[in-house]
Sequence to fold (247 residues):
Amino acid sequence: MATYDSLGARYARTRQPDPRIAAQIHAALGNVTDVINVGAGTGSYEPPETSLAVEPSGVMIAQRPPGSAPAVQAVAEHLPLVDGAADAVMALLTVHHWSDPAAGIRELRRVARRRVVVLTWDQRVFRERFWLVRDYLPEAAAFDDSRATPPGDLADLLGGARAEPVHVPHDCVDGFAAAFWRRPYAYLDPRVRAGTSLLAQTGEDTIAPGLARLADDLASGRWQARHAELLTLDTMDVGYRLLVSDI
Fold:
């Protein structure tokens, strides 16, 4: 399977933090003195209190902006940190990339003194509500079936957690999988697909027939007619969930 050393070279172009989602994440972290970001990627959503980023891909680390917190190349399952290293630990849209989610969650809990915040998604809700995977790319949904850990299972691993829905704005800045739910033409752009692991790791050959059907439906107006109500919404719950667990 492709890794972010091969997929992530231009990741920062389409994956900028959305300020509304950032506000929700930072509120969930609360009044903490320092934060460790695990699976940090290029540094999106890191609050000013971030003291360290942990990221396995050197390609992603190289794209962190000047002034970011220092980064160490390591995996979630084996954090090179002492117990209780920071007030809070966050892991955002990364658990599905881990080889052993249970081991990674244990490490988050070990390193955090007060709080763990995890951004993930509910695959059942995602499949039902997100038209792209439901109607055009079931192959991509099947790929996620194999790697998505249900939020309830993650909450259990965390020793209990509250789950907050993360509603995706229609003009979301961050180009994750469902960010363009009201901007369907975006999924026809290879640059957008390259910044979305769901599509990039499923593979262009696999998703090409579904994308061709989407292009035809957009050209004919069938997509617009089918989703007229969707086009009136400002935000949508597509299954993204913020899990907040106190140690």
